[in-house]
C-alpha cells in the first residue's frame, strides 16, 4: 500500500466517532448520579461513550434509583456498582451490553403490617427496599408481598401516624415477616413520612384517602364528628341541601354512590333526615373515596365509591371510650377474647334530643296528659377478629341503626261552632327507618405472592310510617259523631351476596387482582294501606303494591397495575356483569383504563377512562337523599343506567412530602337515568306499576378540580376548588331541551386549616362557598274563569288561581357560604386520654337557603317568594375519655 493510500485510510478512520468502536472493559468512565434511575445512567453512558444497552423493560427494572460519583474509573467496576449490586447481570454481545435479571438472586418477603400496640392491621402501609428503590403497599387487610433481590439487607416501612422503621433481613431466603409499627406520639394521629408513595408514583387518580383523625379534629355540627361531612370538603363533592351529610359526586345523584362498610353496601348513609352519617368515627379505621377511575373490582354505581373499613379490635389489652355531646352519647369497648388470637370491638351511640325537648313538645303540640314525644336515632357496631393460623384469619362485623319519630296526642277540647260541643281526640304518628349490615370474611394466604379474601354479606334498609286518628263527640249520645282512620306506608330493600377476591403480586412491577361476585336483591318498593271507619260507615281497606320483586347480579373482574419503566404506569382492567329480572336479562362489559406518564420535574400526567353500569334506581323528588325515597331494580321496561367517564390531570408531591397538588378535568355521560314524570310523587309510586310514573333520559356532567394540601408541620390544611356542570335531558320535560340538574353547582370552594398549639391544643377552621342550586318555581299565575282552554292546565276549582310553570330549573337559589371553627384539647394521664372539642357552626350566622316557597301577604294578598333557613349559629361541646 502506498503512503498516500495509508494517509487517506487513516484520515477516514479518524473521522469516525471513536466511541462507537473503542470502548472496552478498561474504558475510563466519569459519572455523577444523585438518586437517579438506572435508565438515566444507561442513557448517559450511551451518549458520552457510545456504549449501547439492550434489555426488556418487562424483565429488568430500570426504575431503581442510584447515587454514584466516579471519575476515571474502569467500566467494569462502574457496571458492577450499578447493576451487579442491584441483582442485574450484564454481558457483552457484539457492540451491546445485554442486561438480564439474576433469577436465582430473588426472594419474596410477605406478611402483615400491624399496630404494635393493638394488633390492628394497617391498610396502605408502604414497604420499601431502599437499595433497589422499589416497594409495595399493604392491601385492604394489611397484607403485603414484595419480591426483591436475595441480598437485600433491610426493608423500610412507613404509615400515616406511625413511626417509620427499618426491618433487617438476616439471610437470603423467602420468608413471612409480620411488621409492627408504633403510633407516633402526636396530638393528631396524622404525620406523613418521607417514604409514603408520592402522587406522581401512583397510577390511580380521582382518589382521596381520608385519615379518620382529621375528622375528629375538624369543626363539628352539634358535637358529632362525621366522616361523610369531612368528605364533603374535598373537590368534586358537594352536600346537597344545607346541613346535610349526604354526598353528591361530580354531579351524580345519591343513589349513584356505592358506600361499603367492610365490603357490605349501605343503602341509607344518614341519620336525622341527612344531618348526620351512620358511620361512628370511633369504629372507622380507613376511608377511601373514588370519584372516578374506578378499579375493576368495584361495580354497580356510576358516580363514586366510598370504601369504609371498620377497626378490628385490640388483640392485647382492653380499652374503652365514653363520649358525651350536646346531642348524643357514645361508648366503645375493645379488647382480646384470647390474647394474640381473638379480639372484639363494640360501639353504641344514641341521641337524646327527645328527652331534652319533652316539655317544649308537650306545650307546643298540646299532647295532653297521656301524650308522648320521641325523636332520636341510635346505632351500634360490633366486630370479632380471629386468627386461625399464620395463613388464615376470620372476621365477622355487624351494624344496626334506626331513626325514630313518634308523636302521641290524647286530649279533650271544646268547640263553639254554633253550639257548644266537647270532643275527645286521639292521634298517634310514628315514623322510622334504619339499616342493617353484616359481613363474614375469610382471609387466606395461598403463597407469599397470592392472597385471597372470601366474603358473605347481607344488608337491608327499610322505611315505615303509620298513623291513627280518632275523635268522638262526648255530649251527643243520641247521634254517634266520630272518625276512626289509620294507615301505613312501608318500603324495604334487601341485599345478600358473596364474593371471592384474589390479590397476586408476581413481582414489584405487577399487582394483579381478580375475583367473582354474586348478589341477589329483594325489593318491596312501596306498600300503602289505608283504613277508614267514620260515622258507622263500612270499613274501607285499600292496599297497593303488596308485592316482592328480586334481581340477581353476577360479576367477574380482572385488573393489573403494571409499571413499565420509570415513566409509564398502567392500570388495565375489565368488570363484566349480568343482571337477571323476571322477563329480562342484561349483560354489561365495562373496561377500565388508568395511565400515568412521568413528565420532567417529577410531574405526573394521568389519564383514565371508566365505563360503569348500575342496575338499581332511586325514585326521588327531593334535592337530597331522604328515607322516603324508594329503591327499585331495572325491569324489562326500565333499563339499567350506564356511564362513561374520561378524566385527565396533573399531580405532584414535593420532594420533602410537605405539599401535594393536583389538577383534574373530567367529562361524564350517563344513559337511562330516570326521574318522576311531571305529575308523579313518591307515594304515587306505590302503585302496581311504578314504571308508568317515570321517564328515561340522558345526563352529562363535566368540570375541573384543583386541590392543594400542606401535609406536614404544626400548620396544615388544604384548599379545593371545583368548576362543574351537571345537566339532564328527558322527553316531554322542559320541551325536550337540556336543563341544569338539581345537583348542578357551578363553583365550589373548600378551605380547611388546622394549627397545633403546643402538645395539647389544636385549632381548626373550615370555610365553604358554593353557587346556588337550580330551582323550579312558578313564574306567574292567572285567575281561572271556569272556561276550558286547550293551552292551559285545568284548574282544581272553578275560578281558582292557576300557576304558570316556566322552564325546568331556570332559576337559582342564592349562593351559600359558611365558616365553622373548632378547638380540640387532648390531655393524657398514664393510660387515660381526655379529649375536649369545642365547635362553632356557622360562625357569622349566615342565612343559607333550605328551600323556597310562596307565602301570601295578609295585607296585599299577593304571593311572595319566601326563603326558609334552618341552621343558624350553633355552638357545641363534646368530651370523651379513653382508657
Label this structure with key terms.
883 residues, mainly beta, Phage tail protein beta-alpha-beta fold, Immunoglobulin-like, Ferric Hydroxamate Uptake Protein, Chain A, domain 1, five-stranded mixed beta sheet, 7% helix, disordered N terminus, signal, TonB-dep_rcpt-like, transmembrane beta strand, cell outer membrane, transport
Brief digest:
This protein is mainly β and 883 residues long. It contains 8 helices and 54 strands.
Uncertain runs are 3-21, 186-195, 788-799
Can you count the helices?
Answer: 8
CATH domain class of the largest domain: Mainly Beta
| Strand content range | over 45%
Which CATH-level-2 architecture of the largest domain?
A: Beta Barrel
Integer average pLDDT: 82
Which fold name corresponds to the CATH topology of the largest domain? Maltoporin, Chain A
User: From the helix content, strand content and strand pairing, which structural class follows?
Assistant: mainly beta
Kindly give the count of domains.
4
Helix content: under 10%
Distance between the termini: 99 Å
Please name the fourth-level CATH homologous superfamily of the largest domain: TonB-dependent receptor, beta-barrel domain
Tertiary shape: globular
Radius of gyration based on Cα positions: 33 Å
Q: How many strands, what sense, and barrel or not for the largest sheet?
A: 22 strands, antiparallel, barrel
- How many strands in all? 54
